[in-house]
Design brief:
Layout: H1 2-23, H2 26-34, H3 38-46, H4 49-66, H5 73-140, H6 142-150, H7 157-172, E1 176-183, E2 186-193, H8 209-217, E3 219-221, E4 239-243, E5 252-258, H9 264-296, H10 305-322, E6 326-334, H11 338-344, E7 350-356, E8 360-368, H12 372-385, E9 390-392
Antiparallel strand pairs: 1-2, 1-5, 3-4, 4-5, 6-8, 6-9, 7-8
Helix pairs in contact: 1-4, 3-4, 3-5, 4-5, 7-9
């Protein structure tokens, strides 16, 4: 399309000048005829050599047409000189255009090579950083720690978390370390070494500056909030590391309650890497566990009694080994209140039917990581949501 337009432009140029000359008075025609060679040179430097050949042909045709008598030797010679000169100019222009194309191609290749070099440079920078980190880990023996953690069984997430904390606590010689799950401003104990952590901050997020800053910034030590400590906050944890990619949706925090102050910076740096590894492991486990649990969930949202007893036995084992509490509630409600019961519970709670008739249903409710105080809170919430509810012995 572009070539066709250029051909029309060249032809149109000569036709336009030809018509203009014939529309002018005879006295002025000679003046414009004398400048008929102008488009010849303009087009010779504007377009490629092939277009200039057409340009020369049109010039010759119109030069003959405009000659009212036979062309004299002098006129013939001048036209030959003009055509030869324009052709030489076109050849020079062709060489210039080819040179520009060569430079453009070289520039394009140079830019492509530069982008490749930049990617390679970024890659090698990442490799160097990784090697530095690996060297630091090798120097301090952390690589062996990661290797040991990868061998942990993943049949149960809470058991996995406890073994994770036991290994980390032993490696860094930490006297107290725990994992807390975060949910809408509240923190709930998930795993701890030793089994019962110090209660030096409550389960409310705002009750600990260290934990609050860690959830916001990724990590925080007691040194960073030392100026903000008051008598009410004299038992803040030493260190907290966020588990999760950002503060909008964290899994929770790793909290170090007691440790050697001289190891604070080193432990903080290594726990950041370990928290990232733990978070990835948790997400993989949760995806697998969700699929397994959904297989056992009945259409009405409850679980088969055998599955319920299996989960209860698992939490009994965790309580016996690590002291993690769990609670159990048995209730009797009208059959049409079953959905309200399920909505009032946490997503981790399990419900199974013990007995059901036309008018009522009797349920067992398993509350993981819930002590007596938490159990009372759940019972109060159920009373508030369901008027006709009876708490019965399990």
């Amino acid at each position: 399309m572009r070539k066709f337009v250029r051909v029309l432009e060249i032809i149109g140029t000569y036709l336009g000048i030809f018509l203009l000359i014939h529309l002018l008075p005879e006295n002025d025609q000679d003046i414009f005829t004398a400048f008929f060679y102008v488009p010849l040179f303009v087009i010779s430097v504007r377009y490629d050599i092939l277009y200039h050949i057409l340009n020369m042909l049109l010039y010759t045709i119109f030069a003959i047409i405009l000659a009212e008598s036979e062309i004299s030797f002098g006129a013939y010679t001048s036209h030959v000189v003009i055509l030869s000169t324009s052709f030489a100019v076109a050849l020079i222009n062709k060489a210039r255009l080819e040179s520009l194309r060569d430079y453009e191609e070289k520039l394009r290749r140079a830019e492509s090579s530069l982008e490749t070099l930049e990617r390679q440079a970024n890659y090698f920078e990442n490799v160097i950083d990784t090697l530095k980190t690996k060297l630091a880990y090798e120097t301090e023996g952390v690589s062996s720690l990661f290797l040991k953690l990868t061998e942990l069984p993943r049949d149960d997430l809470r058991l996995f978390a406890h073994r994770f904390l036991e290994i980390v606590a032993e490696f860094f010689d930490l006297e107290g370390i725990s994992i807390w799950v975060y949910n809408q401003g509240f923190l709930r104990i998930f795993a701890s070494v030793p089994s019962f952590p110090d209660s030096h901050f409550s389960t409310l997020l705002n009750d600990s500056l260290v934990v609050k800053n860690a959830l916001r910034n990724g990590s925080c030590s007691i040194v960073e909030i030392i100026d903000s400590l008051s008598d009410e906050r004299f038992r803040e944890p030493w260190l907290a590391i966020r588990i999760g990619e950002n503060e909008k949706d964290p899994f929770g925090v790793i909290v170090v309650e007691r440790m050697n102050p001289g190891e604070l910076d080193k432990v903080e740096n290594h726990l950041k890497a370990l928290a990232g590894w733990f978070y990835i492991s948790v997400r993989e486990f949760q995806r697998e566990e969700k699929g397994k649990i959904e297989e056992y969930k009945l259409p009405d949202g409850t679980y088969d009694l055998n599955r319920y007893n299996s989960e209860r036995q698992k939490y009994q084992n965790l309580y016996a080994k690590y002291g993690l509490p769990f609670s159990e509630i048995c209730v009797k409600v009208p059959s049409n209140e079953l959905r309200n019961v399920l909505n009032a519970l946490r997503k981790d709670d399990l419900v199974a039917k013990i007995f059901e008739d036309v008018e009522s249903v009797q349920l067992k409710i398993l509350l993981p990581l819930c002590d007596e105080i938490g159990k009372i809170s759940v019972m109060e919430r159920l009373r508030h949501e369901i008027e006709d509810i009876d708490f019965v012995n399990c």
